[in-house]
UniProtKB/TrEMBL annotation:
This is Membrane family protein. It holds the Pfam family MIB_M1. Transmembrane segments: none annotated. Residues 214-347 form the Mycoplasma immunoglobulin binding protein arm domain. Residues 103-155 have a biased composition (Basic and acidic residues). Residues 561-754 form the Mycoplasma immunoglobulin binding protein M2 domain. InterPro entries: MIB_arm (IPR058861), MIB_M2 (IPR058860), Mycoplas_M_dom (IPR030942), Mycoplasma_virulence_signal (IPR011732), Predic_Ig_block (IPR030941). Residues 352-549 form the IgG-blocking virulence domain.
């Protein structure tokens, strides 16, 4: 027990130390960029040890030296410690107490146990713990990387054979992808490593005359074909029944193509680009067609000597990178040079077609050796090039008490004569029509029977999921599927895909998620944990095109551009309540982002396996299945790889609310990360709903509950949520009657603010 006398000394010391500490803390440089999502804190202060004394503006040498220039002189051991005479505070009548006690008559002090409760100093260790308390929104840190099995490759010189040419080139093989120990331990990596790009990078190609000439010949051949076919209509004489202008309006692709030549044809020196014999007729033809613009253009196109046109510097630069012009995308710029809107890699160095060929051959259960994808008909019928599909429903129907016609359940066998596809040769496929009420009712029992009998099923194909009822119960059916399954194909007719979470512990080699509806809707979402053990998620069978008839049901893989989480992923009250959600975000936005499925609607960047920050990603987040989640507080959208940080912005957010005034605590608004994660520069996409609520009620207000106040970051968060994401959704902000300061602050910022009354937050569910 500390003696009372010692306590009083400590109390006096504390009275002097405290203002010094506060002064230093107040001196912390604090920089906030108004239009930035980062806050830079340069923390520089110290804790004064308990046994230190500050006397007459000097600091005991025992104390650590602050890195803030507070101009305090150090006391040396030999220096006498002067007695400080108390001074009157000019701003109040209280007397400052010296840190050195003034001699007074001694009196016997007795230990009083009650004194322990009156005042005690917080130990320095506790203060340090308090200072180090982790914020709810943590900065990203790089995890511990696993050792690579081989060193990164170095550039090397090779010969590339192309169209009979031998090109000197320098290439670099792809390095091994970086993997992190914690990601493997947390099971958020692909259980079968997926590499997007296995093709070497071409660093440089020597551009020879032969290479240049070969590229130009392809361009000239394409242009001459277009002139003789697409643009021959320009030579037609116009009349009351025919107009080139109208024809171009009716053929937008031809109109766009013509625009790529128009600037060139209008050059003042266009005559110099014509064939020699045509130059002699130039003036005559110009006069002849002075009132017939398109006929004039048609004559010019037919008489240009295309070999006079040289490649632009842009084309030369791409040739040096091993990229040739794409004839379909060639145009002639205003300088009279060939250029292109797109370029194609040399054969054998196209990362996209190489990946598609590899995935078709090795990742599909019923593979084939080509980069071509399957047609809508092939997807619907379950057929593959080189495979023979035979119905065996009669045999299996009797065995498992299924009436194929009545129940909408059929069995098939697929065979392939090629040894390279022998793994799944003779595979049994079960097709189930969930739109058939009898079949739907039998499905669960059928799967149980097949599992119990040890029947080796290669594939389940389930059609019309949600066609009769978007809430149709499929979780139990998916949960009953075998632990290991080579292929699963699910055809959804509603955007409710929440049941696939039942697949979390299923080792599925190939998963296809199809729809015959609009596959690009923002409402399509996936829970990352549903795909935890799926080795390959099919994105090959993309059949979206304006060429299909309006209203036609065309099965295509779904583009999932939103991430969703379920109540099981949020551990309310736990030390790290957001752990699973952050693992799911890390999996979808970083760890497996090199896979096409996780790249949202825009595909990979230039280095999909090594620079995930350059890849596209799912830009929506659905938290509406977890009513307790009101914001993005505690969630991690930033990642670090090999020392480089990249941040993910989200475009869309769905939350839950069963009240017309969405309730969120003031402090949660401060921590919500709405500005950091949801603020976007530039205008919104036309028709895009950036914020939605689910809960059966139309939300038109915000209830900022609690007695706190908005920080500068909270003010930015509210503005982003209310104005940028809400975009006219909210008519008011409600605050508690006790929070007058918040009411006045919001009013001064132009918000319509009301004090809360009992009618404001009536629940509708």
């Amino acid at each position: 027990m500390i003696k009372a006398k010692k306590k009083k000394i400590f109390i006096i010391t504390a009275a002097v130390v405290s203002p010094i500490v506060v002064t230093q803390v107040a001196a912390i440089p604090f920089y906030v960029k108004i239009h930035s999502d980062k806050v830079n804190l340069n923390v520089a202060f110290r804790v004064i040890p308990q046994n230190s004394l500050i006397e007459n503006g000097a600091v005991d040498a025992y104390n650590s030296i602050s890195n803030i220039d507070n101009h305090l002189k150090l006391i040396t051991d030999n220096e006498p410690k002067p007695v400080i005479v108390p001074k009157e505070d000019p701003y109040n009548s209280n007397t400052l107490v010296s840190s050195v006690p003034i001699d007074k008559p001694k009196e016997e002090l007795k230990d009083d146990p009650k004194d322990d409760d009156k005042l005690s100093l917080v130990p320095a260790e506790k203060e340090k713990e308090k200072e180090k308390e982790e914020p709810i929104n943590k900065e990203p840190e790089e995890e511990v990387a696993l050792d690579k099995s081989r060193p990164d490759p170095k550039p090397k010189d090779i010969i590339i054979e192309y169209n009979g040419l031998k090109l000197n080139a320098n290439i670099t093989e792809q390095p091994e992808r970086v993997k992190y120990k914690s990601d493997v331990e947390n099971r958020i990596t692909n259980r079968v490593d997926y590499i997007n790009n296995t093709i070497p990078d071409i660093n440089k190609v020597e551009v020879t005359e032969g290479f240049r000439g070969d590229n130009k010949k392809k361009v000239v051949d394409k242009i001459e074909w277009e002139v003789n076919n697409t643009f021959r209509v320009f030579n037609e004489k116009e009349s009351e029944t025919f107009s080139v202008e109208r024809w171009l309006d009716q053929n937008p692709s031809a109109k766009d193509k013509f625009k790529s030549y128009e600037a060139f044809l209008n050059r003042a020196d266009i005559k110099d680009f014509l064939k020699t014999e045509s130059q002699k007729e130039f003036d005559k033809k110009k006069e002849e067609y002075k009132n017939a613009k398109y006929q004039w253009y048609g004559w010019l196109l037919s008489n240009v000597d295309w070999n006079k046109i040289q490649a632009s510097k842009n084309v030369e630069d791409y040739l040096a990178k091993g990229m040739t012009t794409s004839p379909d995308n060639v145009y002639i710029n205003a300088n009279g040079e060939f250029d292109s809107y797109a370029f194609s890699p040399l054969p054998g160095y196209n990362a996209v077609t190489s990946r598609m060929t590899r995935d078709n051959k090795e990742k599909r259960t019923f593979g084939y050796d080509s980069y071509y994808t399957r047609s809508p008909r092939s997807v619907l019928e379950g057929t593959y090039p080189g495979w023979n599909k035979v119905m065996i429903s009669e045999e299996y129907g009797k065995k498992y008490d299924v009436q194929p016609e009545e129940d909408g359940i059929n069995f098939f066998k697929l065979t392939n004569d090629k040894p390279e596809f022998g793994k799944n040769n003779g595979g049994i496929v079960v097709e189930i029509n969930a739109g058939n009420s009898k079949g739907y009712a039998k499905t669960l029992e059928l799967i149980k029977k097949l599992n119990a009998s040890g029947e080796k099923i290669t594939s389940y194909r389930i059609f019309n999921i949600g066609a009769k009822d978007s809430e149709q119960k499929f979780y139990k059916i998916f949960e009953t599927l075998p632990k290991k399954l080579p292929q699963l194909e699910l055809f959804f007719e509603s955007t409710n895909t929440s049941a696939i979470l039942a697949l979390e512990d299923k080792e599925i080699d190939e998963l296809s998620l199809y729809t015959s509806g609009n596959s690009l809707l923002d409402d399509w979402s996936f829970n990352p944990f549903a795909l935890r053990n799926v080795a390959f998620i099919n994105k090959l069978d993309y059949n979206v095109s304006s060429d299909y008839p309006r209203g036609a049901k065309i099965p295509t893989v779904i583009t999932m551009d939103s991430i969703a989480f379920d109540p099981v992923n949020y551990k309310k009250g736990a030390e790290d309540a957001f752990r699973e959600i952050n693992l799911g975000l890390r999996m979808a936005l970083f760890v497996r982002n090199n896979e096409p499925f996780f790249q949202g609607g825009f595909g990979p960047g230039l280095k999909p396996d090594h620079n995930e920050g350059g890849n596209s990603y799912a830009t929506g987040l659905d938290l509406s299945r977890i009513p307790d989640l009101k914001s993005l507080k505690g969630m991690q959208f930033s990642f670090v790889k090999e020392g480089k940080r990249f941040d993910r912005k989200m475009r869309r957010l769905i939350l839950y609310s069963d009240q017309k005034n969405f309730e969120i605590d003031v402090q949660e608004m401060n921590d919500s990360q709405f500005y950091k994660v949801m603020h976007l520069e530039g205008p919104p996409n036309p028709g895009e709903e950036r914020l939605k609520f689910r809960g059966g009620v139309k939300v038109d207000g915000i209830y900022l509950s609690g007695k706190g106040k908005l920080s500068s970051e909270g003010t930015q968060n509210l503005e982003t949520f209310y104005k940028e994401m809400g975009r006219g959704m909210f008519a008011r902000i409600i605050v508690d009657p006790e929070n007058k300061a918040l009411f006045e602050d919001l009013t001064s910022r132009g918000y319509k603010v009301e004090y809360r009354n009992p009618d404001h937050n009536l629940k509708f569910n």
